[in-house]
Design a protein that fits this description.
This protein has 216 residues and is of the alpha/beta class. 34% of the residues lie in helices and 17% in strands. The chain is built from 5 helices and 7 strands, in the order βαβαβαβαβαββ. It has a 7-stranded mixed β-sheet, with helices on both faces. This is Histidine phosphatase family protein.
Length: 216
């Protein structure tokens, strides 16, 4: 594709760490968003649309964790596009986070139809495609994220815009890889967002921040 491309990465909204009665497919370590988190996801989707303008040619990627899929669903609804699950952008699979391979038991593995129906979106998921090995350490996770990004950037170069919905670690690492000079560790806010324009180099259109969403 000739000309500039737009890339964005955003963290999920507020997660619910305990079962919610009307969300029956809650799995330990794979909670849904709270109602506040769903509103944050709406604000994030609106902010992305504001920054990227009238671009509709968007390839939307989500981590397989439910909180990320729900966050991605708000942009999917606005733009009428599917959500593509990519396990290469999943949470870091540290042993002290997860006592077994969490990717084997995520809600998405058994409840994809229910999730699609509840959110009103189409989810495209090929289990085990690009799946990292469990367990991994932080260095392995970083290499995995950057390799995943370079793969996606090349595989979907026909798209004007790529948006990734993932986790705080991935937002920070991709932002640094996109040559952000700021200290990113202090901002652990929900729906932290970064957007860049790309044409043989990265130029930030929206530097990594959750400030736009902090009061919600």
């Amino acid at each position: 594709m000739d000309g500039d491309r737009i890339f964005a990465v955003v963290k999920n909204g507020q997660r619910a760490d305990y079962a919610i009665p009307d969300r029956p497919y809650l799995v330990r370590d794979d909670p849904p968003l709270t109602e506040k988190g769903m509103r944050q996801a709406e604000i994030a989707a609106e902010k992305i649309c504001e920054v990227i303008g009238d671009i509709n040619d968007i390839y939307l990627i989500s981590s397989p964790f439910l909180r990320c899929i729900e966050t991605a669903s708000k942009l999917a609804l606005i733009k009428n596009i599917p959500i593509h699950i990519d396990e290469g952008f999943c949470e870091t699979l540290l042993e002290n986070y997860f006592d077994s391979d969490i990717l084997e038991i995520l809600n998405l593995n058994t409840k994809i139809t229910e999730i699609e129906n509840e959110l009103g979106v189409k989810i495209i998921y090929n289990p085990r495609e690009n799946r990292p090995d469990y367990p991994e350490n932080s260095d392995e996770s970083y290499i995995r994220v950057i390799r995943s990004w370079e793969r996606v950037k090349e595989e979907y170069k026909e798209h004007k815009c790529i948006v990734i919905v993932s986790h705080c670690y991935i937002v920070n690492k991709l932002s640094k890889y996109w040559e952000c000079k700021r200290n990113l560790s202090y901002d652990k806010g929900l729906c932290k967002l970064a957007v860049v324009r790309y044409n043989n180099g990265y130029e930030f259109l929206f530097e990594p921040s959750s400030e736009y969403c902090k009061d919600n």
